[in-house]
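During the reporting period, our protein records have gained a structure token line. A sample record is set out beneath this paragraph:
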Amino acid sequence: MPDSYIIEVNSETAGIVVRGQGGYRFFAASHQFNRLEGQLFRNAREAERAARKLVNGDVREAA
């Protein structure tokens, strides 16, 4: 499995996730995704879902 993934939402780069101890850590590519900065996810797909929820206005669910 790769150690990092680029997360895109609506053709915009949201950030990257990097595999480390305990999961994948999110690093935001723009201020729009700063709320996810540093969060740990089980996998890249979970991080992508959180970024999509953030864009769709479901901030409560994104964190």
